[in-house]
Fold:
Amino acid sequence: MITAIKNVIVTAIQVLWVWLEGLWAIVCLIGIGLGALVGKGGPKVALGAAFAKVSTQLTVMKVLRAFIPNLSLKLKIMNAYENTGTAIITRYNDCVDVLNRNEDFEVVYGSRMRKLTAGENFFLGMQPSWDYTRDTSAMRLAMRRTDVEQFVEARAAKLAAEIVSGSNGKIDLPAQLVQQIPWDMTNQYFGAGGNSKDMIDWTTVLFWYLFEDLPADPEVEAKAMDYAAKLRNYLDEAVADRKKNPTDAADVLNRCLALQSSDTPGMEDLGIRNNLIGILIGAIPTISKSCCLVMDELLRRPDALATAHAAAVRGDDDLVAQHCWEALRFNPHNPVIYRRANKDCVVAEATLRRQKIRKGQMVFAANMSACFDRYEIDKPNEFRTDRPWNNYMIWGYGMHNCFGDAINAKIIPAIMKSLLAQKNLRRAAGDAGQIDTGGTPHPQHFHLEFDA
Ligand code: HEM
Structure:
C-alpha cells in the first residue's frame, strides 16, 4: 500500500515536471518565433534557419512529449515514399514499439533501393522474409564481429593518428580525416573502395536519395541515378576482376566469393554486388557525418571537451566512446527513423496517449526525442558519460538496427581519439570553423585547429 502511494506521488511529480518543461519549451518557441520576425533575410528564412537547428527541434519535441506524445496529421511531410499523412512518435517506449512492430509498420525504402540496384531490393528495404534472412545471414558470415578488432579498429586508429600528426595543427575534418577513414575501410576491409573521391561522392548522394530526400527533389534523383549506374559498373568490374585475379586477402569481397563457391543462396555475382551497394552507402557518409557532429557538439561544451581530451590523452577508449555517444544524443545523425503503417492500428494502447494511426501514414519514430524522454532517461538534459547503452538509439532499433553497429562502436572513437588528444583543439575562426554541408545533408568542410 505504501509503495503504491509512493509510486503515485513519484509519477505525479514526474508528470508535473514534464508538463512544466513543456510549458517552458512553448515560451522558448514563442521567443524563437518573435526573434525570426526581425531575423536576417526575413521571417521565413530566419524561421527556417531556427528550425533547422537541433536545439530548436529538441524544444519542439519537449512540447510534443509533454502534451501530444503521439501526433497524427493529415499533412504529408515526406514525398520520397508514398504515404497518406504523418504521425510523430516522441516517447521512448512508443518508438521502441513502432520499430519492433514490423507487421504494422513497414520499411519503405524498397522502391528507391530497386532503382539503385536496377532491379532487386536490399535488405534494409525488406520486411521479415526469406530474402531478408538469406541476405543478412550471408552478409553476417562475410562480415564477422571479430573483424572489427582484427581489421577495422586498429587500422582506423593508426591512420587517424598519421593524418592528425601530419596536419600541422590545421585540419579540414571531413575532407582530410573522417571521410577518408571509412573510405579506407571500404577499400581494405570490404575490398571494394575504388577511387576515394568518387566513392565518397557517390555514397553521399545515394544516402541522401534513400534517406534524406524528403521533398523528392528531381535534381537529387537525377544525380542519384547517374551515381548508382557508376557504382554498379564499378562493383560489377570489381567482382569480375577479383574472380579473374584471385587474392588471399581476408576481405568481405573474398568472403562473399567463398560463399558463392559453396553455393550459398543470394551470393551470385548480382547478389554480392547489390549487398555491397547497400553496405557501401551505409558506411561512408554515416561515419563521417557522425564524427563531425560529435566534434561540433563537444566544441560547444568546453567541460565535456576537456574531459574527452583527458580521456584521449590517458588512452581511456571507453570514456572517449561515452563522450561520442552522449554528443550524438544531443546532436544525432538521424533524428527520426521512419516507417509506413501497413494497416489501421494503434500506438500506446490503454494509455492516455493512445493514438490511432491510419493505413498509409508515414510514422516518424523520433529517436532523437526518445533519448530525452524523462520517463525513461535519467536527467535527460545533462551531458553525462555514465549512461547505459540502452539510453541511446543512435543507429536504429529492432530488426533493422544498424548492420554496422559493431564497426561504429569502435571506429568512431578510434578516429576521434587522435584529434581529441590534441592540445587546445578549437574551431578555425569565422565560418570555416562551422560545419559546411556544401548544399548536401552531409558535412563537406569543417576546419579545426590545435597546438601542433
Ligand atoms: C555512425 C554511423 C552509422 C549510423 C548513424 C547508422 C544509422 C543506421 C540506422 C538509423 C539504421 C536503421 C534504419 C532503419 O531502421 O530504417 C541503420 C541500418 C543499417 N545500417 Fe547503419 N549506420 C551507420 C553505420 C553503418 C555502417 C558502417 C554500415 C556498414 C557496415 C551500415 C550499414 C547498415 C545496414 C546494412 C543497415 C540495415 C540493417 C537491416 O536492415 O537489418 N551502417 N543504420
Strands lie at 70-73, 86-89, 105-106, 170-172, 337-341, 345-347, 355-357, 362-365, 423-427, 447-451.
